């Protein structure tokens, strides 16, 4: 039997007024795995993540995390339960220092000693954030801000991280670097990940299971090893053939 799902989404719908962005999505991500959601612009990927993390309210359907319903719950409560989103475009606090940004990630936690220890651990993944700890986050490069956004999410001690387009605007080299760190976080901490990505090559190499979202619906899903071999996915998502 496969591992029980940490995240289980059933018939989820989300909309902006009359615009139905997510139209009945069901998916499950087992604990400790990496999943990816691929799809064209406007398919509803960002809306899906925002609805899972409580930023958007669902119209219908259910989001279960670690066995409890969280659909429509307050984002801070969802973070406390262990589900944290890294938003598209990073959204660090530009005037706060790098260290202060990291501390903001731990705002739901009470144990200051554990938070101080975690800053050390998180900085071990991203040594540049230690070097730049006192600098304003807005002065970091785009890649460094992406690292800070991931590191800040780790500061919440999450069981699962939702990552929206981590490669957006980054060079291929920096993207490789960030993907290698994401893999390490998954292997070393057992953190479950759900990743939305435009770079289908990298995402299908990194993730265990993939979901293709088109026009608000999942049209294909399966193990990434199988998806990579499918002619239609090679043609439309991997630019092969
Ligand atoms: P991209 O890859 O371009 O970020 P996406 O797959 O993440 O696209 P969403 O951003 O979730 O897609 O958008 C899904 C649909 O919802 C699109 O039709 C989009 O125009 C619409 N939409 C997204 N955000 C809003 C908003 N704040 N108000 C109204 N409509 C929105």
From TrEMBL:
Which InterPro entries has this protein been placed in?
AAA+_ATPase, ABC_transporter-like_ATP-bd, ABC_transporter-like_CS, BCAA_Transport_ATP-bd_LivF, P-loop_NTPase
- Claim: Transport is one of the keywords in the record: yes
Annotated protein name in UniProt: ABC transporter ATP-binding protein
Q: Which organism is it from?
A: Inhella proteolytica
Tell me one GO molecular function of this protein: ATP hydrolysis activity
Which segments constitute the ABC transporter domain? 7-240
Give UniProt keywords alphabetically.
Answer: Amino-acid transport, ATP-binding, Cell membrane, Membrane, Nucleotide-binding, Transport
Would you say which domain of life the source belongs to? Answer: Bacteria
Give the record's family classification.
Belongs to the ABC transporter superfamily.
């Amino acid at each position: 039997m496969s591992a029980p799902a940490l995240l289980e989404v059933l018939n989820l719908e989300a909309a902006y007024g009359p615009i139905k962005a997510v139209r009945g999505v069901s998916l499950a991500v087992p604990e400790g795995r990496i999943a990816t959601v691929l799809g064209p612009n406007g398919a509803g990927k960002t809306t899906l993540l925002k609805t899972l993390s409580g930023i958007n309210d669902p119209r219908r359907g259910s989001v279960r995390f670690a066995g409890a319903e969280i659909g429509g719950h307050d984002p801070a409560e969802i973070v406390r339960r262990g589900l944290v989103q890294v938003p598209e475009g990073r959204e660090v606090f530009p005037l706060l220092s790098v260290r202060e940004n990291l501390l903001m990630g731990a705002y739901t936690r009470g144990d200051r000693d554990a938070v101080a220890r975690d800053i050390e651990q998180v900085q071990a993944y991203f040594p540049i954030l230690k070097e730049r700890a006192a600098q304003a986050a807005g002065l970091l490069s785009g890649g460094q801000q992406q690292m800070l956004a991931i590191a800040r999410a780790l500061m919440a001690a999450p069981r699962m991280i939702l990552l929206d387009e981590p490669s957006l605007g980054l060079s291929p080299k920096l993207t490789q670097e960030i993907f290698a760190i994401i893999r390490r976080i998954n292997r070393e901490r057992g953190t479950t990940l759900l990743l939305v990505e435009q770079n289908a090559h990298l995402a299908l190499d990194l993730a265990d299971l993939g979901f293709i979202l088109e026009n608000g619906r999942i049209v294909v899903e399966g193990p990434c090893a199988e998806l990579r071999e499918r002619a239609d996915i090679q043609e439309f998502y991997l630019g092969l053939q």
